[in-house]
Write a structure and sequence with these properties.
- With 259 residues, the chain is an alpha/beta fold.
- It has one domain: Aminopeptidase.
- The protein is 25% helix and 25% strand.
- The protein has six helices and 15 strands.
- α1 packs antiparallel against α3 and α3 packs parallel to α6.
- The longest helix has 15 residues.
């Protein structure tokens, strides 16, 4: 887990020098594991294996206003990690860590590291507009950018982005390795929401951080380790296609909470 600690120790505002250097160190260094591409605004794409059907995504920026090295403190009794007097940036440093582990272990997929999610999904919006051809053959997109430890998101901002069938099957797959996931319709926004209408199933997965965007943010280290191990074990081809379309219509009665 040392790599996770190192990745979380850097504050990474969008367009900053720190996020550029961090991305070069932790993301670009994985180019040897697959076909690697950087677009004009800095999104990174790594294709592992032949003809992947699933896109896994995370974003490289954090909500910090200033760059710098964070002082991290681990509570061994609760197996949690937080930053001293600062936002931790586990949103979405944890997602980037998990994707990097999957890439290094040869899990077949299209891996996309988006820029500037925290300022309105800038990177993913650009990718949809300029590079939609990259997603040809992709049946589902799983963003690893959700708070908590139990959610497979079916709705973002009140609109359906993922079918209940797909979310239930993915939950079952995760739970078969000892986790406790279930479909959840209270998502707000992450990059996968921009791909509704382009990709059939677009979801967001809880990765073990809490109280994001605040100085009280922390991560559950035990969950992250379990999720990491599970992501390497699942046969992802079984969950790439659903018989139902993921996109639905907005319900005025559906509530939203912090993503």
């Amino acid at each position: 887990m040392k790599k996770l600690y190192d990745m979380l120790s850097v504050a990474r505002p969008g367009k900053s020098v720190s996020v550029k250097k961090w991305t070069e160190k932790y993301i670009d260094s994985m180019s040897k594991y697959g076909h690697f591409y950087i677009d004009k605004i800095g999104n990174r794409y790594i294709t592992v294996g032949k003809d992947p059907k699933i896109a896994f995504t995370a974003h490289t920026d954090t909500v910090h206003f200033q760059e710098g090295i964070l002082k991290l403190v681990e509570n061994k009794e609760t197996s949690t990690l937080r930053a001293v007097d600062s936002v931790l940036g586990a949103d979405d440093g944890v997602g980037c860590f998990l994707l990097s582990e999957m890439i290094q272990n040869g899990v077949v997929g299209l891996y996309v590291f988006f820029v500037e999610e925290e300022t309105g999904g800038v990177g993913s919006s650009y990718s949809v507009e300029k590079h939609f051809q990259i997603y040809k053959g992709i049946d589902c997109m799983i963003s690893l950018d959700r708070r908590g430890t139990t959610n497979v998101i079916t709705h973002q901002g009140g609109s359906r982005t993922c079918s209940d069938e797909f979310a239930s099957n993915l939950s079952l797959a995760l739970n078969s390795f000892g986790l406790e996931y279930s479909p959840d319709d209270t998502g707000i926004f992450t990059d996968s929401a921009n791909f509704v209408g382009i990709i059939r199933e677009c979801t967001n997965l809880s990765v073990g951080y809490f109280r994001a965007h605040s100085t009280e943010e922390y991560v559950n280290l035990i969950h992250i380790q379990k999720l990491r191990d599970t992501l390497l074990k699942i046969d992802w081809n079984k969950f790439s296609i659903s018989n139902k379309k993921g996109q639905g219509v907005k319900s005025q009665e559906e509530s939203v909470v912090e993503c």
